[in-house]
Each structure stands twice: as structure tokens, then as C-alpha cells.
């Protein structure tokens, strides 16, 4: 499958015009069908692309220029509005095609449930995978008000698929008592409130492992990223998230894919959230795509 013909709209800055020799494929997951508070994250991917036009093409964090990484922006996956299961099926099939071509998938959300089918596709190719989850919320619910397909459930689903001992969550500061109890008893790793410091301690233990990284923008304090559906006070700074991305890049883990989700632009007229998100995507591309 070629990705070139699927999309002709906005693209992330310096995207190649053809996908054949790309090492990474950027794709959007414009889905917010199951959110529990404020919708709008389906508009996140394109606004991140728009904000990327203001980026410098050189990263002083990675000491790399964007021309050093071959990537192609395939645009948004066309998802059936309001149909969670069919949307998840479409995402899984799309990511499977990326992986089948030996390319690195970098997803833009969209709500966090959209990460679940990506994990399923990645696990099919890398059954020994580890999940690094950076988020304000535990996302360990079995269901939300009777709905098993909810943006509050993807990490619990991942635990059931790859084993809780292969799940590492950072920055968590919100969830039900039962979620924190599950994390404590299941054998998964959960770092509360902080990201960079516990990452620095954990990454050496994951050396040589295949790691998928999912980042929810609401791990940031609302002062840094108000444009998200379920904002949580007490979060980290943009500087700390940049440090975390760099720590992963400098570690000995093998990052096999990643996503950045839950950007909801309508709640941030200043555009600081999409500006920050586009910078994080730049760093993920330059640091994690080998």
C-alpha cells in the first residue's frame, strides 16, 4: 500500500511528498466519540499540523535537523463518525499496513481510546513490547458508565493484552481508587505526578526492549496546555515533557511507535497547546525514529 494517494490536505512541516522511502508515517486519528467530559479532540491532528509551520526545523535538544529524518504525513484516517468499534477497526488496519511496510507509526489524536487498536497492531508484530504511558489519568477502568469502549480504558486493555508487568505509567494524578489499587496489586509500574525523574530510573531496566510510547497532552498542567478535554491541575511543565522525550531518545530502548493524543484546540484560543504539541511531535520524530 502507498499512502500518497490517500490524502491531499494539510501536512506536518517538511513531510515528504511520497511515502515509499519514508522511515516514519504520521497519521491522524480524528475520533472523540467516547469522551467523558469535553469533546473536540477530533480536530487536534489538523491543528497540530497547522501549528507546525511555526517550528524551527532544527532541534537543539536532539542536535538534528528535520531533513535528517524521512517521514511522510498520510493525513487523517477517515473514521465513521460516532461509531467507536468501526473506528477502532479502521485504525488497527491502517497501522498494521504501516508496520507491514517496516515503517514507524506516529499517531496524532484524537481521544486516548484510539491508542488501543494501535497497541493491538503493534503487539501483533512485537509480542514482547513494553508500553510507556505518559498521562494525567490512569486510564485503567474496565468501563465508564457501562461502556467498555471509553477513553478511560485503553491502559487497562493494554495490561490485559501485554501483561501489567510490561506497562509503565508516568505523571498519573487522577483516577478512581480502584484504578490505583489495580496498579499497586497487578505488577504494573505507576509513577504519580512526575515523569522525568522516574523515567530516568526506569529506562536502564528497559534497555534493549521494544517500546511503544503514548503521550496524553493532559499530562501537562493546564497552565501549559489548556486545550484538552479533561484538564487536570497539578501537572508537569512543557520543559519536563521535552526532557522526558529526550531521555527516551538517549536511552537504549527501541522505540517502535508512538502517539500524542487528546489535543482539543477549541478550549485554547491562544493556540499554546497545539504549538507545544507540534514541538513535541518534532522531538519525537528526531529522537525516536532510527
UniProtKB/TrEMBL annotation:
Key words, A-Z: Hydrolase, Manganese, Metal-binding, Polyamine biosynthesis, Putrescine biosynthesis, Spermidine biosynthesis
Binding-site residues, Mn(2+): 112, 135, 137, 139, 216, 218
Quote one Gene Ontology molecular function term.
Answer: metal ion binding
For activity, the cofactor(s) needed are: Mn(2+)
Class of the enzyme per the UniProt entry, highest EC level:
hydrolase
Give the pathway: Amine and polyamine biosynthesis; putrescine biosynthesis via agmatine pathway; putrescine from agmatine: step 1/1
One Pfam family, please name it. Arginase
Q: Key word Acetylation present in the record?
A: no
The reactions it catalyses are: agmatine + H2O = urea + putrescine
| Free-text function comment from the UniProt entry | Catalyzes the formation of putrescine from agmatine.
Family, as annotated: Belongs to the arginase family. Agmatinase subfamily.
**What NCBIfam families does the entry give?**
agmatinase
- Provide the protein name: Agmatinase
- Organism of this sequence: Radiobacillus deserti
Amino acid at each position: 500500500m502507498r499512502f500518497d494517494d490517500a490524502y491531499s490536505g494539510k501536512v506536518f512541516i517538511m513531510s515528504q511528498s511520497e511515502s515509499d522511502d519514508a522511515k516514519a508515517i504520521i497519521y491522524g486519528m480524528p475520533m472523540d466519540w467516547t469522551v467523558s467530559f469535553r469533546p473536540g479532540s477530533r480536530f487536534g491532528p489538523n491543528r497540530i499540523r497547522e501549528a507546525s509551520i511555526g517550528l524551527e526545523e532544527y532541534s537543539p535538544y536532539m542536535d538534528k535537523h528535520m531533513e535528517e529524518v524521512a517521514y511522510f504525513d498520510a493525513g487523517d484516517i477517515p473514521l465513521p463518525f460516532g461509531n467507536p468499534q468501526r473506528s477502532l477497526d479502521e485504525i488497527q488496519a491502517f497501522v498494521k499496513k504501516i508496520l507491514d511496510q517496516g515503517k514507524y507509526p506516529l499517531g496524532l489524536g484524537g481521544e486516548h481510546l484510539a491508542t488501543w487498536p494501535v497497541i493491538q497492531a503493534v503487539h501483533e508484530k512485537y509480542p514482547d513490547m513494553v508500553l510507556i504511558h505518559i498521562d494525567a489519568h490512569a486510564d485503567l477502568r474496565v468501563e465508564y458508565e457501562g461502556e467498555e469502549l471509553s477513553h478511560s480504558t485503553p491502559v487497562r486493555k493494554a495490561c490485559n493484552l501485554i501483561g501489567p508487568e510490561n506497562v509503565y505509567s508516568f505523571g498519573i494524578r487522577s483516577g478512581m481508587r480502584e484504578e490505583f489499587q489495580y496498579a499497586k496489586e497487578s505488577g504494573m509500574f505507576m509513577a504519580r505526578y512526575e515523569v522525568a525523574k522516574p523515567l530516568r530510573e526506569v529506562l536502564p531496566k528497559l534497555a534493549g526492549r521494544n517500546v511503544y510510547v503514548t503521550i496524553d497532552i493532559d499530562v501537562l498542567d493546564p497552565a501549559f496546555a489548556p486545550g484538552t478535554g479533561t484538564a487536570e491541575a497539578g501537572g508537569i511543565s512543557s520543559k519536563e515533557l521535552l526532557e522526558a522525550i529526550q531521555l527516551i531518545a538517549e536511552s537504549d530502548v527501541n522505540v517502535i511507535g508512538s502517539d500524542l493524543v487528546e489535543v482539543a484546540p477549541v478550549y485554547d484560543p491562544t493556540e499554546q497547546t497545539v504549538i507545544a504539541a507540534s514541538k513535541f511531535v518534532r522531538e519525537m520524530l528526531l529522537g525516536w525514529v532510527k
